[in-house]
Amino acid sequence: MKICEVRPTYYQNREKLVDQIRTLSKQKEKAEASYRVTGDSKFSEEAATLELSIKDTEKAFEENQAVLDSIAEQHTAIMNMEASKLEGEAMKEEMENMGKIMMVFRRLCNGDIVPLTDEKKLMEYDDKMYSMAKNMQAMAQQLEKEREKHDSLWEDEEKKENPDIMEVADNSEYAGPLPDIEIPEVAPPASGEVTE
Length: 196
Prior knowledge:
Helices cover 70% and strands 0% of the residues. It is mainly α. The protein has one domain (3-155, 165-170). The relative contact order is 0.18.
């Protein structure tokens, strides 16, 4: 199952378990209070039974929380992995652009003709470098040497969109056990007097 499908089930379990622990705790407190007031042993027995129910519910809560923690760890790990991948791709692209800019600079310095879009990229990168390359191009062209005409280095590039790392993590398959957390059934208080 995908992480985004697994997570809500265990969050709902957690809410139910928390509510059940609160309810049982209140019932236990009332049973204990009734025992102190009346001294009737049925209230003492009821409080002991409720204590066992609380322990069972807390155990189920801990199991459920362990699964939620595992889901969160896996989700975070996938997000971090995707972010690192995107960062690596961005660095690679930046290095490729740097190489292209240096190539445009070299071509201009040799007196060659490059597309205006490539000149603009060089100028946006470093205007001083661009000015120096244009001066060198003018000097090289005065030497009457043969000029080579180049195609754009950026012509075939298409702008790609980066995926949303949260969406990638949410839609990843959860790799781990998905235990069926049983929420303990709680019988109504035996005395009938102790309720929420």
